[in-house]
């Protein structure tokens, strides 16, 4: 697990049940991600968490010609992390979707509070392998995984820690296949944790 990082994508109130753009059973990703985050923190490995952080007026929203209902507007309750998500104190927080003209699906569009992009943050910490989970499989997770692979990072998708929108039936399964074909590994959190601390 040396040189590994955990990337948690968009586990926000608006993407969970009851939110403005809820992913069906989106909150089911929280418990496995909490396990993974605790394990990474205990091992002293870096954890990154992204949030959509949209301006109130953006071409991403239906009201301004975009595809989506208004969601995850910066500094609103909908943009907050789900309250059950347990992020260690060491977590590096990233904000994406902040540009009025860009969708910002990928975590690689995200930057920390100082404006440093994810790619630079990974390089500075010598991260060469990412374990990725969060929301939604068929949009931000897919975009982030494919972007990571194009940057020659090794990627493991945590299959029980992702959930999809499925605007078209089967979108999530197709996205997982796209990621696998592109070079990502697909593991459950349990499998990933066994890999981190193999049985003796």
Model description:
This protein is α/β, with parallel strands linked by helices. It has one domain: Rossmann fold (3-Layer(aba) Sandwich), CATH 3.40.50.850. The protein contains five helices and six strands, in the order βαββαβαβαβα. It has a six-stranded parallel sheet, with helices on both faces. β1, α1 and β2 form a beta-alpha-beta unit. α1 packs parallel to α5 and α3 packs parallel to α4. It is globular. The two termini are 16 Å apart.
What is the share of helical residues?
25-40%
Q: Biggest β-sheet, characterized?
A: 6 strands, parallel
The CATH homologous superfamily is named Isochorismatase-like
Outline: globular
Count of structural domains: 1
> Would you report the number of β strands?
6
Low-confidence stretches: none
Strand residue content = 15-25%
**CATH domain class:** Alpha Beta
Question: How far apart, in Å, are the first and last alpha carbons?
Answer: 16 Å
Helix and strand arrangement:
Blueprint: E1 4-9, H1 30-42, E2 47-52, E3 92-96, H2 118-124, E4 129-135, H3 137-150, E5 154-163, H4 171-182, E6 185-187, H5 189-196
Parallel strand pairs: 1-2, 1-4, 2-3, 4-5, 5-6
Helix pairs in contact: 1-5, 3-4
Summarize the structure.
The chain has 200 residues and is α/β, with parallel strands linked by helices. 27% of the residues lie in helices and 18% in strands. The longest helix has 14 residues, at 137-150.
């Amino acid at each position: 697990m040396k040189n590994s990082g955990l990337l948690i994508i968009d586990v926000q109130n608006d993407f969970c049940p009851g939110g403005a753009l809820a992913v069906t059973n989106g909150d089911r990703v929280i418990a496995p991600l909490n396990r993974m985050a605790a394990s990474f923190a205990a091992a002293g490995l870096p954890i990154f968490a992204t949030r959509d952080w949209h301006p109130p007026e953006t071409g991403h929203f239906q009201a301004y010609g975009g595809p989506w209902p208004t969601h995850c507007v910066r500094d609103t309750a909908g943009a907050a992390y789900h309250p059950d998500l347990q992020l260690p104190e060491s977590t590096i927080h990233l904000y994406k979707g902040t540009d009025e003209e860009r969708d910002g699906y990928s975590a690689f569009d995200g930057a920390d509070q100082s404006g440093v992009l994810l790619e630079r943050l990974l390089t500075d910490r010598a991260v060469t392998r990412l374990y990725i989970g969060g929301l939604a499989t068929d949009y931000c997770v897919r975009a982030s995984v494919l972007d990571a692979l194009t940057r020659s990072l090794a990627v493991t998708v945590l299959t029980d820690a992702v959930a999809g929108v499925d605007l078209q039936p089967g979108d999530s399964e197709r996205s997982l296949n796209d990621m696998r074909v592109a070079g990502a590994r697909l593991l459950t959190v349990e499998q990933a944790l066994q890999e981190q601390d193999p049985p003796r």
